[in-house]
């Protein structure tokens, strides 16, 4: 038979183990850094090909003069010669034809470019192509690359996209259609080839992940998926059971003392 004084010392220890187990069970756990997810969680259709290939052709109107320019210089190096180091911000219209007055507006090129080459005019382009027409309304493509404007055809990478163009990758070919040496205004023909996820929808059209919900009706973020919640619950329950077994084992040992 165990000594009552020994049992009285053991009781707080048992309660401490149980409290620690409950704390582990109820405390939030950090999400894993990466995990596989299904296409359905992102609102993509699993029964279609993984990627669509789309070609887009439009005209980019860069207006730097007049009372309503679409591109303005926002910074220029004081010590640099010529225009090296200049930084311009743009909100250029994109149309389906070269004549801006007679063509349909299909989007806008929003971003900036900087003259980063001391030997030729080759700005670094950082821009989002925001589309406003048809099934692409509200979707974007992001372009980041070098644009040597004196070459016949320039090629720049497409590094991402949103809406219909989620998971986009590809390239854009730019070819100057007209350039006015007096005003500096230019019309550039763009042909974009892009691979993107099938089944994606434009923002606001009720696509799967736009609602912020996953397949279980909860948060759509990877950190709150059912597998993560189940994993943390299993760890807490396992610790609780282990603590209980340890407590019972110690009680048994003390009863034999």
Automatic annotation (TrEMBL):
Region described as Disordered: spans on this chain: 200-229
Cleavable signal peptide: 1-31
Record keywords, A-Z: Apoplast, Secreted, Signal
Single GO BP term: phenylpropanoid biosynthetic process
Subcellular location: Secreted, Extracellular space, Apoplast
Bias kind Gly residues: ranges: 204-221
InterPro entries, sorted: Allene_oxi_cyc_Dirigent, Dirigent
Gene Ontology cellular-component terms listed: apoplast
UniProt keyword annotation of Iron-sulfur present: no
Claim: Signal is one of the keywords in the record: yes
Functional note: Dirigent proteins impart stereoselectivity on the phenoxy radical-coupling reaction, yielding optically active lignans from two molecules of coniferyl alcohol in the biosynthesis of lignans, flavonolignans, and alkaloids and thus plays a central role in plant secondary metabolism.
Complex formation: Homodimer.
Family membership noted in the UniProt record: Belongs to the plant dirigent protein family.
Protein name: Dirigent protein
């Amino acid at each position: 038979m165990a000594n009552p004084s020994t049992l009285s010392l053991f009781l707080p220890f048992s309660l401490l183990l149980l409290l620690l187990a409950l704390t582990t069970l109820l405390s939030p756990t950090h999400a894993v850094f990466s995990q596989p997810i299904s296409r359905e969680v992102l609102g993509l259709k699993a029964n279609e090909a993984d990627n669509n290939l789309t070609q887009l052709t439009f005209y980019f109107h860069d207006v730097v003069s007049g009372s309503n320019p679409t591109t303005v210089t926002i910074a220029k190096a004081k010590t640099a010669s010529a225009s090296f180091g200049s930084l311009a911000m743009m909100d250029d219209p994109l149309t389906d034809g070269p004549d801006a007055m007679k063509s349909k507006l299909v989007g806008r090129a929003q971003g900036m470019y900087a003259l980063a080459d001391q030997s030729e005019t080759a700005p670094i382009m950082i821009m989002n192509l925001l589309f406003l027409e048809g099934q692409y309304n509200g979707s974007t493509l992001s372009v980041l690359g070098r644009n040597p404007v004196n070459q016949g055809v320039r090629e720049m990478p497409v590094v991402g996209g949103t809406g219909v163009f989620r998971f986009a990758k590809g390239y854009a070919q730019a070819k100057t259609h007209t350039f006015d040496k007096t005003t500096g205004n230019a019309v550039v023909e763009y042909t974009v080839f892009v691979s993107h996820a099938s089944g994606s929808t434009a923002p606001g059209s009720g696509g799967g992940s736009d609602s912020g919900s996953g397949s279980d009706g909860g948060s759509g973020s990877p950190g709150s998926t059912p597998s993560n919640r189940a994993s943390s619950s299993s760890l807490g329950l396992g610790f609780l059971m282990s603590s209980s077994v340890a407590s019972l084992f110690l009680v048994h040992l003390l009863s034999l003392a």
